[in-house]
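Bumping my old thread because nobody answered last time. Still need a sequence for this structure:
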């Protein structure tokens, strides 16, 4: 039996900051709520009302990992690539 493909559209629950504050709902545990005025996201815990939930924070783009060794003119390429490739060759991801 083969598995088929199902197309889905995932939409976050969203509204203006004023509407969120006036309604002050309790978001379910893990439920995201997007404030379109602040362009920010809150995640529910199942018992805290909207006005008391913190916005998610961060600088965007994820964190930076540790910097590896550098050579005389820049980063040093690994001796062997992740797939057994050759030194000095760049592999697109």
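Sorry it took so long. Here it is:
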């Amino acid at each position: 039996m083969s598995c088929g493909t199902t197309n889905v559209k995932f939409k976050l629950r969203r509204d203006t900051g004023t509407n969120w504050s006036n309604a002050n709902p309790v978001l379910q545990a893990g439920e995201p709520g997007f404030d379109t005025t602040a362009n920010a996201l809150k995640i529910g815990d199942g018992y805290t009302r909207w006005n008391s939930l913190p916005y998610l924070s961060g600088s965007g783009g994820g964190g930076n990992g540790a910097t590896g060794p550098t050579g005389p003119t820049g980063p040093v390429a690994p001796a062997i690539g992740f797939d057994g490739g050759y030194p000095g060759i760049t592999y697109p991801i």
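The first helix runs from residue 17 to 23. Let me know if any region looks off to you.
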